[in-house]
Hints:
mainly alpha
Amino acid sequence: MKNKILIYLLFPLIGLGQNVNIPDPNFKAYLLAETNINTNGDNEIQVTEANNFKQIT
Length: 57
Protein backbone atom coordinates (compact mmCIF):
# COMPACT_ATOMS: atom_id res chain seq x y z
CA MET A 1 0.00 0.00 0.00
CA LYS A 2 2.84 2.41 0.83
CA ASN A 3 4.39 1.78 -2.59
CA LYS A 4 1.16 2.75 -4.37
CA ILE A 5 0.91 5.96 -2.39
CA LEU A 6 4.53 6.82 -3.19
CA ILE A 7 3.97 6.16 -6.89
CA TYR A 8 0.87 8.37 -6.94
CA LEU A 9 2.72 11.17 -5.16
CA LEU A 10 5.74 11.04 -7.48
CA PHE A 11 3.87 10.49 -10.76
CA PRO A 12 3.28 14.23 -11.49
CA LEU A 13 7.01 14.90 -11.07
CA ILE A 14 8.06 12.49 -13.82
CA GLY A 15 7.28 14.94 -16.66
CA LEU A 16 8.75 18.05 -15.05
CA GLY A 17 12.15 19.44 -15.93
CA GLN A 18 12.55 17.87 -19.34
CA ASN A 19 14.46 20.19 -21.66
CA VAL A 20 14.10 20.50 -25.41
CA ASN A 21 17.35 19.74 -27.25
CA ILE A 22 18.13 22.69 -29.55
CA PRO A 23 21.44 21.98 -31.34
CA ASP A 24 21.63 25.30 -33.23
CA PRO A 25 23.15 27.84 -30.78
CA ASN A 26 21.82 30.87 -32.69
CA PHE A 27 18.26 29.54 -32.72
CA LYS A 28 18.50 28.60 -29.05
CA ALA A 29 19.74 32.10 -28.19
CA TYR A 30 16.78 33.57 -30.09
CA LEU A 31 14.31 31.35 -28.23
CA LEU A 32 15.87 32.13 -24.86
CA ALA A 33 15.63 35.87 -25.53
CA GLU A 34 11.90 35.59 -26.20
CA THR A 35 10.13 36.01 -22.86
CA ASN A 36 6.92 34.64 -24.38
CA ILE A 37 8.75 31.33 -24.92
CA ASN A 38 11.35 31.20 -22.13
CA THR A 39 8.88 32.09 -19.39
CA ASN A 40 11.03 31.11 -16.40
CA GLY A 41 14.33 32.62 -17.66
CA ASP A 42 16.49 29.60 -16.81
CA ASN A 43 18.54 29.41 -20.06
CA GLU A 44 16.73 26.24 -21.17
CA ILE A 45 13.47 25.58 -22.99
CA GLN A 46 11.38 23.01 -21.16
CA VAL A 47 8.84 20.82 -22.91
CA THR A 48 6.08 22.58 -20.96
CA GLU A 49 7.26 26.01 -22.19
CA ALA A 50 7.31 24.77 -25.79
CA ASN A 51 3.86 23.23 -25.46
CA ASN A 52 2.37 26.32 -23.82
CA PHE A 53 3.64 28.76 -26.46
CA LYS A 54 0.93 30.08 -28.76
CA GLN A 55 2.16 31.98 -31.81
CA ILE A 56 0.37 35.24 -32.47
CA THR A 57 -0.35 35.67 -36.17
